[in-house]
Amino acid sequence: MTDQEWEERQKTRQLEMEAVSKALAVLSGDDAHDLFTRTFNPSFAQASATAGSARREAASKVLATAAQKSNNPRLAALATRVRLDAFERVKQAIDEMIEQLTKDKAAEIKHKD
Prior knowledge:
The structure is a single chain. About 80% of the residues lie in helices and about 0% in strands. The chain has helices at about 5-25, 30-40, 50-70, 75-85, 90-110. The radius of gyration is 26 Å and the shape is elongated. The model has no long low-confidence stretch (mean pLDDT about 80).
């Protein structure tokens, strides 16, 4: 390794360290904390499984078994839908969050201009 290559590597490492320091400063700043606080949705955290989800899973299994015995694709689709409908509230919350972030982005762009 030549001296020139060594100097170039040293400069690159120094620039990388500066960039990481700036990124850490941004991520640990008050603005980042406020943004996290505004966008964090505690409804995503599951406290416990409900009896409804157990009933939903049992119904899904019954429908899937009936679909398999009768070779009925509609029953199989219904079984899948019953199982996946539990995520409707999560999908709705994600859609609302995306909508809010889009509004925030538009407001920020408007503010910067």
